[in-house]
Amino acid sequence: MSRYIKGGTVITDTLPSIVSYGTAVGRMEGEGPLGSCFDYVSEDSGFGENTWEKAESRLQQHAFEQALLRGGIAESDISFVFAGDLLNQCTGSAYSMRNNGLRFIGLYGACSTMAESLCMASVFADNSVGALCAALTSSHFCSAERQFRFPETYGGQRPPTSQWTATASGCAIVGAHSDPPYIRALTVGTIVDMGIKDANNMGAAMAPAAYDTIKTHFENTGTKPEDYDLILTGDLGFVGSEILRDLFLQDGVTLGERYDDCGLMLFDRETQDVHAGGSGCGCSASVLCGHILPGVKSGKLKNVLFAATGALMSTTLVQQGESIPGISHCVHISFE
Amino acid sequence: MSRYIKGGTVITDTLPSIVSYGTAVGRMEGEGPLGSCFDYVSEDSGFGENTWEKAESRLQQHAFEQALLRGGIAESDISFVFAGDLLNQCTGSAYSMRNNGLRFIGLYGACSTMAESLCMASVFADNSVGALCAALTSSHFCSAERQFRFPETYGGQRPPTSQWTATASGCAIVGAHSDPPYIRALTVGTIVDMGIKDANNMGAAMAPAAYDTIKTHFENTGTKPEDYDLILTGDLGFVGSEILRDLFLQDGVTLGERYDDCGLMLFDRETQDVHAGGSGCGCSASVLCGHILPGVKSGKLKNVLFAATGALMSTTLVQQGESIPGISHCVHISFE
Questions:
Q1: Tell me: the pLDDT tens digits for A15-41?
Q2: Per-residue pLDDT tens for A46-70?
């Protein structure tokens, strides 16, 4: 049974296991530094579909199927699917899961959705509400570009602070305590808006939310950065990561080498033209499920604090001159 | 502690209480048959804001504040807020809750969101994950019209099957067992798509999902229609409600007088020009929190099965010729 502390922090006393995980990515992600980690790399960015939106749903299905396959899990054994994505009305997830008979809980946390879904799946699993709960999310560069910025064919200029939406999906399946990785604790975030209005600088908009959630998690659990091998934000990218380091430095806390960001890990910024780094729900989902969870499973990583970050904006609100609220949820994943 | 049955059904063994609720609506909803039930009726559809999107966020804040007020609850006593709405990237909820320090879990279930958020809040409360959990959602006619259909000033022709998005918001706060109303059980829905492609006939798109969820709930809990005073769908409207009755009739089950639909209750279809009835996340939320919960609290209603329904489409996918997936989640709310 879960133990609620305060300020959004939940201690999962049964230590639920992440019993399986799967990933699917596009070609560019497959060519990146983590390319060999992914279960499914598509040469075709359309994933065999005739629109980008349907391509994203197909991509998400691949990640889900890979998670089932790795765990030897029948689809019908999944009690609940917690899923979401960036598309308007979260259609990436809805169309990926339609008519499969699975119980579906749609989430929206922008690029924080992988942590949000993992939080929900963990709370359900920790309290035996269902046997196996899937946390699933995706993003697709082309569907995101045309929805949030410009049509793909327009060839708009991208400023240096902009990030590159990953064509990627990840799925983690959480169940009762068995083998590692384990979920030890989690902190649900609060919406932080520090007044950033530049839709091409999501990292700056999200960094204060990541700071708030990670700091709250440290306080509520009595842990400190040294207790983790890796503190991993979702996709702050280069700009947001530096802001996060600075915010902690103001408290006298040096994140140092133990800190990294999924947006900086998925692509090689030297050779891949992604400006400030990767982003999108699928960025942190694929890095977590493709690279981090295998590391915890093998014991190479003992304690990871995974804090995906999301910018809760819409183009409409940005056009109305509104600033961009950010949110971050974090999950402590451990080997022991 | 919750007891998971199968097929998305959870029995809440501690019987969490809905400790408070609040509503806010626009003028037209205030002039409808349930007008006197609502806590806050605004004469100004802009709710003092200069855009429809900001108006919706303000509307949602009013419902949330009314729920706090009725329950004598301090905002800081809310452990988690489960919220969502119809706007792209769920900005109605994100902007309504930003910078208030509350732990926020963003949901997307289209017009099923009130039931979805109530399901999540109930599972959390039943397992003592947090003390008080808010379920909150909203919709606004003007923000929805321009996003999903035409600009307000265009004056597009509406077909008879179309529904009228309610300008309304409702909030229910769930906590540990105390006074009624109680949450007894819930069933999380699955995504059902029977091939309806007409975005002006949401009722038809959603009815099969409502049928699936309610039928599953009956089966998994061993209950039948006669066990409920009221079986209430979210916003199937006139067309979808008739389809739902027909689907049950094919099983030899007559829903009869005990069945009603929030979309048919919020407005008077004789005198208010809403075609097939009301819709929008706020429709079922305001009817539930303004009319039904007080009825259960007083004992006038003993057992209500609340099944909000959502159409998980986006304009993009509809334009691509895709059919419209529906989902419905249901919650059994009782006096005893």
A1: 999 999 999 999 999 999 999 999 999
A2: 999 999 999 999 999 999 999 999 9
Split into its structural domains, chain B has a count of: 2
**Closest Cα to residue A144, out of A167, A162, A161, A160?**
A167
Residue B216 half-sphere exposure toward CB, CA atoms < 13 A: 27
**Domain closes at, from A175, A194, A212:** A175
Strands B326-334 and B303-311 turn out to be: antiparallel
Residue of B50, B88, B112 for testing the chain A interface, max A β-carbons within 10 Å = B88
Residue in this structure with the two tokens 């992440």, named with its chain if needed = A18
Q: Give which of A82, A88, A96, A139 to mutate to test B binding, by max B Cβ within 10 Å.
A: A88
Cis peptide leading into residue A181 (ω within 30°): yes
- Structural domain for A160, as ranges: 17-175
The 3-class secondary structure across B44-106, one letter per residue, is CCCCCCCCHHHHHHHHHHHHHHHHHHHHCCCHHHEEEEEEEECCHHHHHHHHHHCCCCCEEEE
Pair A56, A130 in one domain: yes
Instruction: Tell me how far the alpha carbon of residue B251 is from its chain's centroid.
Output: 26
Asked if omega into B181 is within 30° of 0 (cis), the reply is yes
Q: Does A100 touch chain B (CB under 8 A)?
A: yes
Helix (H, G, I), strand (E, B) or coil at B23: strand
pTM (two decimals): 0.98
